[in-house]
Design brief:
Blueprint lengths: L1 E6 L2 E3 L5 E9 L6 E7 L6 E6 L6 E3 L7 E6 L4 E6 L8 E8 L4 H4 L8 E2 L3 E5 L2
Parallel strand pairs: 2-11
Antiparallel strand pairs: 1-3, 3-8, 4-5, 4-9, 5-6, 7-8, 9-10, 9-11
């Protein structure tokens, strides 16, 4: 069993940066792929990024490639989403999630099969 808690959201101006954190408790993080998702008001949930358990593989949505970077520290049981060059369309609640199948459910968009989810942190990009 895992518990995930996101933090780091807030209000930022367009072009600014934020770092989101996902703190994991419970089981060891070593065997899980961890993803970031977001959901804007009135829109469907969007897969943003995923990082595999051994850090060898990372995946990004086209909308954030080149601007967002995912990283993890298994020893600290932390996963991060570094967001740069933020745009108003990045405004959303951001969630982290963990799956034992590394990033398979993220890659194949089987989001409902992902095992564990946090409760989200709000990011607002506005001037």
């Amino acid at each position: 069993q895992l518990e995930l808690v996101e933090s780091g959201g807030g209000l930022v101006q367009p072009g600014g940066s934020l770092r989101l954190s996902c703190a994991v408790s419970g089981d060891t993080l070593d065997y899980y792929g961890v993803s970031w998702f977001r959901q804007a008001p009135g829109k469907e949930r969007e897969g943003v990024s995923c990082i595999s358990s051994n850090v060898d593989n990372t995946y990004y949505a086209d909308s954030v490639k080149g601007r967002f970077t995912v990283s993890r520290d298994n020893a600290k049981k932390m996963v991060y989403l570094h967001m740069n060059m933020l745009k108003p369309e990045d405004t959303a609640v951001y969630y982290c999630a963990a799956e034992i199948r590394d990033c398979a459910n993220f890659v194949y968009a089987n989001y409902d099969n992902i095992d564990y989810w946090g409760k989200g942190t709000l990011v607002t990009v506005s001037s």
